[in-house]
Amino acid sequence: MRKLRYAAVALAAALLAGCGSAAPEPVVPAAVAQTAPPTAEARYNDVDVAFLQMMVAHHGQTLEILKLARTRGTDERVALLAAAIEATQQTELEVMKGWLAGWGEPLTGSASHAAHASPAADGALPITAADEMASLRKASKAQFQITFLNVLIGHQHNAIEMARTEAGGGVNPQAKDLANRIDRSRTEQIKQLLAMVAG
To answer: What is the mean pLDDT of residues 68-78?
Structure first.
């Protein structure tokens, strides 16, 4: 179990960095790796705020999806990727919450903020639909893994869309950098997930 956790931390570092073929960051125990989250500059606009608020909601749902995978069971390669994604997104979630708190902004936004974060969403939260979540929860043991992979592919595609909106319209350097890293890492995740679906 410890080997799996450390491997997940290594993969999480690669995904968070969006490094593709670059060398992964050194693996260190979680207790040693804990550092204060980076602060964000005070300069920001509505797109930055909306992006962080939407991504907080999106990350919360991602963790819910990954928890289902952990409790329902998947094969080892899927479990390893899911653990890496969970480690990455838990860290990102805490950082984004800290930035919003530092700016004096709420963790959740209005429908108009949702439209800022994802214009194609028509003001709706760009997260996985309730019926898809219900299908995942109800999937049989034989169907769970393939359902999980397909739901997560669509879910992470939503994150890429939000990240690209932030990269194009945000002004806060830290938020834009996070958006670029999310774009790269989720794109790589989707490639891996598609490969798992294919066999």
So the answer is: 90
- Spatial distance between the Cα atoms of 105 and 77, rounded to a whole number of angstroms: 39
Q: Are 130 and 142 in contact (CB under 8 A)?
A: no
pLDDT tens figures, 128-144: 999 999 999 999 999 99
This prediction has a pTM of 0.76
Write the pLDDT tens digit of every residue in 33-53. 334 456 778 899 999 999 999
Lowest-confidence region among 7-11, 127-131, 191-195? 7-11
| DSSP per residue, the chain | -HHHHHHHHHHHHHHHHT-TTSPPPPP--HHHH--PPPP--S---HHHHHHHHHHHHHHHHHHHHHHHHHHH---HHHHHHHHHHHHHHHHHHHHHHHHHHHHT--SS--HHHHHHH-GGGTTS--S--HHHHHHHHH--HHHHHHHHHHHHHHHHHHHHHHHHHHHHH---HHHHHHHHHHHHHHHHHHHHHHHHHH-
Q: Are 95 and 37 in contact (CB under 8 A)?
A: yes
Per the listing, tokens 């606009």 go with 45
Find out whether 55 and 96 touch, Cβ atoms under 8 Å. yes
